[in-house]
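From the pipeline queue, job 12 of 40. The input is one protein chain; the requested action is below.

Action: predict structure.
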Amino acid sequence: MSAARGDGLLIGYQLRLPSYEGPLDVLLTLIERERMDISDLSLVSVTDGFIAYIEAMNNPPAVLLAEFVGIATRLLVLKSRAMLPRPAVTDEEQDLD
Protein backbone atom coordinates (compact mmCIF):
# COMPACT_ATOMS: atom_id res chain seq x y z
CA MET A 1 0.00 0.00 0.00
CA SER A 2 1.81 3.07 -1.20
CA ALA A 3 0.09 5.55 1.10
CA ALA A 4 1.40 3.75 4.15
CA ARG A 5 4.92 4.28 2.83
CA GLY A 6 4.28 7.99 2.45
CA ASP A 7 4.63 8.21 -1.34
CA GLY A 8 0.93 8.34 -2.26
CA LEU A 9 -1.57 11.05 -3.02
CA LEU A 10 -2.92 11.01 0.53
CA ILE A 11 0.10 12.96 1.76
CA GLY A 12 -1.82 16.22 1.30
CA TYR A 13 -4.81 15.01 3.32
CA GLN A 14 -4.78 15.99 7.00
CA LEU A 15 -7.23 14.20 9.25
CA ARG A 16 -8.72 16.27 12.09
CA LEU A 17 -10.35 14.29 14.88
CA PRO A 18 -10.66 14.80 18.65
CA SER A 19 -8.19 11.97 19.31
CA TYR A 20 -5.80 12.60 16.39
CA GLU A 21 -4.74 15.28 13.93
CA GLY A 22 -2.36 14.58 11.06
CA PRO A 23 -1.80 12.40 7.99
CA LEU A 24 -3.92 9.28 7.56
CA ASP A 25 -0.94 7.03 6.88
CA VAL A 26 0.70 8.14 10.14
CA LEU A 27 -2.51 7.29 12.01
CA LEU A 28 -2.42 3.79 10.55
CA THR A 29 1.24 3.39 11.54
CA LEU A 30 0.55 4.54 15.11
CA ILE A 31 -2.27 2.05 15.46
CA GLU A 32 -0.32 -0.83 13.90
CA ARG A 33 2.60 -0.15 16.28
CA GLU A 34 0.15 0.01 19.20
CA ARG A 35 1.04 3.62 20.03
CA MET A 36 -2.61 4.57 19.64
CA ASP A 37 -5.67 2.55 20.62
CA ILE A 38 -7.97 1.88 17.66
CA SER A 39 -10.96 1.73 20.01
CA ASP A 40 -10.51 5.49 20.58
CA LEU A 41 -11.02 6.11 16.86
CA SER A 42 -14.32 6.66 15.06
CA LEU A 43 -14.05 5.15 11.59
CA VAL A 44 -17.20 7.05 10.63
CA SER A 45 -15.40 10.31 11.42
CA VAL A 46 -12.37 9.20 9.40
CA THR A 47 -14.61 8.41 6.42
CA ASP A 48 -16.70 11.58 6.78
CA GLY A 49 -13.54 13.69 6.85
CA PHE A 50 -12.22 12.07 3.69
CA ILE A 51 -15.56 12.46 1.90
CA ALA A 52 -15.54 16.18 2.72
CA TYR A 53 -11.96 16.37 1.41
CA ILE A 54 -12.75 14.76 -1.96
CA GLU A 55 -16.03 16.64 -2.37
CA ALA A 56 -13.97 19.84 -2.48
CA MET A 57 -12.10 18.45 -5.50
CA ASN A 58 -13.51 18.80 -8.98
CA ASN A 59 -12.52 15.32 -10.11
CA PRO A 60 -10.56 13.32 -7.51
CA PRO A 61 -8.13 10.83 -9.04
CA ALA A 62 -9.10 7.18 -8.76
CA VAL A 63 -5.69 6.41 -7.26
CA LEU A 64 -6.45 8.73 -4.34
CA LEU A 65 -9.74 6.96 -3.71
CA ALA A 66 -8.05 3.56 -3.94
CA GLU A 67 -5.36 4.60 -1.44
CA PHE A 68 -8.01 5.73 1.02
CA VAL A 69 -9.97 2.49 0.60
CA GLY A 70 -6.79 0.50 1.26
CA ILE A 71 -6.01 2.34 4.49
CA ALA A 72 -9.66 2.40 5.59
CA THR A 73 -9.88 -1.35 5.03
CA ARG A 74 -6.79 -1.93 7.18
CA LEU A 75 -8.25 0.29 9.93
CA LEU A 76 -11.53 -1.64 9.76
CA VAL A 77 -9.73 -4.97 10.13
CA LEU A 78 -7.75 -3.67 13.11
CA LYS A 79 -10.87 -2.25 14.75
CA SER A 80 -12.78 -5.51 14.18
CA ARG A 81 -9.98 -7.52 15.77
CA ALA A 82 -9.89 -5.17 18.75
CA MET A 83 -13.64 -5.57 19.30
CA LEU A 84 -13.75 -9.36 19.05
CA PRO A 85 -13.37 -11.35 22.27
CA ARG A 86 -10.10 -13.16 22.65
CA PRO A 87 -10.25 -16.87 23.51
CA ALA A 88 -9.01 -17.79 26.97
CA VAL A 89 -5.53 -19.27 27.08
CA THR A 90 -5.49 -22.77 28.55
CA ASP A 91 -2.80 -24.07 30.92
CA GLU A 92 -1.59 -26.36 28.15
CA GLU A 93 -1.14 -23.44 25.75
CA GLN A 94 0.73 -21.47 28.42
CA ASP A 95 3.12 -24.40 28.90
CA LEU A 96 3.92 -24.31 25.18
CA ASP A 97 5.06 -20.68 25.43
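Job complete. The first helix runs from residue 2 to 5.
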